[in-house]
């Protein structure tokens, strides 16, 4: 595992969702992706807290983009996974694969 | 459900799209500044905006609040601290802690939330009904000033006035700004596709203006248009406008065919205008001639008036009384013997009428359920407070102030109350929809029902009071206790005082539930009594319907009689028909005319002293078709025709009134009207309870349709039929329609239904009240059972040591079970006794609804008592068995 701390399960889901959105999703899209694809309930509080944490760890970056009228003139953040984030995600996934290799009860991958 | 209407699609006022400002400001302060904070706010705004497009605004706002609170709870604070922010912070901490604490004991949380939701939901649903029907003023301008005048000139009940009496009112009553008369009638509405029956209001020119509701289109009839011979004009209902004229604004000036005449449409009333009854198609001028008024003895017209501004109701009532006595003296030939009385009734009272008693009773039931629920919640919270005494004491010892601990408990209860309140609101909404769906058809003002501001306010009050009830108890008793005493007594949670409090609460629950059980039981008995009453007719296998040919096609009485004679002949020929009976007033419907009579032995009687009886104009098969039994003499036959001697059959009540103690067969009477021939009484039949099983049978005479235009003023053209079938009467509806339309394609068949369905409908109101009361009773008993279970469990665990010792000393399990059950029975007995006292009060609420049943009769009380005892014993069974299974070794081992 990398020196910057391992990833929690929800953190992995968030990173994967951002990657699925091709590094261009806002928080709402990330949440929808998690709920629809991973079929996981994601409260807004948990999502924003996780995004904050991932940002602190340097796994996620964001930039603002101009706004739509529905947002009342407020800019929107688009999230992207940083190279370090991709690396951390790969390590977590590999750890799981290594551990589950050969186990017949949990065939994955 | 009626909330603040959402802005219509396309109406995109920017101001209305802003999310709840308080929530947004709170969140903004929490998140601080910078693009991160801004973008989070933006995300929520965007979602709110999207929801606004799909959902009512209050749901979108609720969603916003949920999201904001979720963020407040999960994200650490980054904003600068403003004054009061620290408090908010610690409040949030309390909320977080409270949610965790409640999650840790799901059984408690679910019971508390569920109990609250049931209590609040039942109250909201029933309160909305009560508010909509009984409490809310009518939707007229200044409805308090609108009242009806009712008359009695002998006989039972209150009824309308005659035209001369009405003209006396107009002349003599200064309290009224304006007075008018009306009646409602069923007429044929002709349109291009098929004629059908509909009801219209027949009103004098004063009625619509005095109600104060202007037409949405056109104008109201003038006084000139309300005179005989004036051009025919009509004001139509909003629904008629929409359905028959597709809502075209050119409708004014077009014509509508009603009652065989063409009427020019001069106006359209707004939707929701329901005077004098809902569902009217139009209002037509009454066109009475003031110069040539109808007989003073014909009380056909209800009177409505608007009081002058500033005139008190009581003033008007006493003026009316004075006026009535003056008129009584002026016309002794009319009023000397049987009197002349009038009364003033507010239009609201008249509209709500009989529904009031039932609705108020249900409201009482719902409030009792709410009280039982509240007691349950406080009992639960007391128990919970006990189990948390150690925790609270430790927190106190570690430095948490008493206020802080109290607030923590209050916040917890606020969470429970809020979740319970919101679920209760949802439950209440669903409950109201269900109530409207199962309510009897004649429930007044049913179309106006909805959850309104008052109901919401009431539910908010319920939530707030339950917060206090729920949270403060343990806070006051638990906080600040010394750590030592808390830890020492931790193993035996209920002190003596607390045990007593809890028992008192359970007894109060049982007695509240008992009152509902008594009320429900009494209603069940009432219904059973009503079903047992012999109505005097046999509703089985009988189909009833009405045939209404156009008066333009049958102008002479002979033509009318011939039409119906032919119709009877053809109806009899339908396979499966046993008997066919035409009649002018179907039992359980309007009673028919009450006519003054003259006996042969007293030919010169005054109208005021003349006896009277309700008329029923029938064809000869009627008695067989309706299953009315002959007591003596004979029934009509097809030889009783217009040119044969006039005959009548009377019921037992009329026989008692006209010739008490004598044989009425062969006696003669006639209608009071000049020139009416004397009629031979040829038979006596059983009484029919025409007004319903709880109404006494009125004196009634029957005359043949073929003779009625000679003997009883007229032979009706629009006429009802009863058909007795060999099998399912409903199957005859189609052939009946075919036969009528073959004879006269322009004569609509209406009000088709089985007599059995009418019997059922006549009890619908009481069945509705009974069903709901039973539901409330069951809910209250279940809630009370939860309370009993809790208290008994606690009592058993309190006494585990004692029970273990007793067992060790040789007491048998059965003895211990008996002990617990005896304890329970004592509580149930006290609760039952209090409930009996409550039953006396309940009886007064129920008076108008009961029939030969009393809330204080021993059966009702005994029944409710046993239900209480059984419920309490069932609830105590589990703790009792636990008591019997106490293992003495286990108990003695933990003893130190």
How is this structure best summarized?
The complex is a heterodimer of chains A (109) and B (896). Chain A has helices at residues 9-20, 27-37, 44-57, 83-100, and strands at 60-65, 76-81. Chain A is mainly alpha-helical and 109 residues long.
Portion of residues within helices of chain A: 40-55%
Total number of β-strand segments of chain A?
2
What fraction of residues of chain A sit in β-strands? 5-15%
Rg of chain B, rounded, reads 35 Å
User: Helix/strand-derived class of chain B?
Assistant: alpha+beta
- Helix-and-strand structural type of chain A: mainly alpha
- Report the C-alpha radius of gyration of chain A, rounded: 15 Å
| Global geometry of chain B | globular
Beta content of chain B: 5-15%
Helix percent band of chain B = 40-55%
Strand order of the largest sheet of chain A: 1-2
The greatest interface here is: A-B, 20 and 23 residues
Oligomer: heterodimer
Major β-sheet annotation of chain B: 6 strands, mixed, barrel
The global form of chain A is elongated
Q: How many angstroms separate the termini of chain A?
A: 20 Å
SSE order of chain A:
HHHEEH
User: What strand line-up does the widest sheet of chain B have?
Assistant: 2-3-8-5-7-6
Main pleated-sheet profile of chain A: 2 strands, antiparallel
What's the helix and strand layout?
The complex is a heterodimer of chains A (109) and B (896).
Chain A: H1 9-20, H2 27-37, H3 44-57, E1 60-65, E2 76-81, H4 83-100
Antiparallel strand pairs in A: 1-2
Helix pairs in contact in A: 1-2
Chain B: H1 21-31, H2 35-54, H3 57-74, H4 85-104, H5 106-135, E1 146-152, H6 163-172, E2 176-190, E3 196-203, H7 207-211, E4 217-218, E5 233-236, H8 238-245, E6 255-258, E7 261-268, E8 282-285, E9 303-307, H9 313-330, H10 332-335, E10 341-346, H11 347-352, H12 355-387, H13 389-397, H14 402-438, H15 453-478, H16 483-488, H17 496-532, E11 542-547, H18 557-572, E12 577-583, E13 594-599, E14 612-618, H19 622-626, E15 630-633, E16 647-651, H20 652-658, E17 668-671, E18 679-685, E19 700-704, H21 705-711, E20 719-725, H22 733-743, E21 749-754, H23 755-762, H24 764-798, H25 800-808, H26 813-846, H27 858-884, H28 888-894
Helix pairs in contact in B: 1-2, 1-3, 2-3, 4-14, 5-12, 5-14, 5-15, 12-15, 12-17, 12-24, 14-15, 17-24, 17-26, 17-27, 18-22, 24-27, 25-28, 26-27
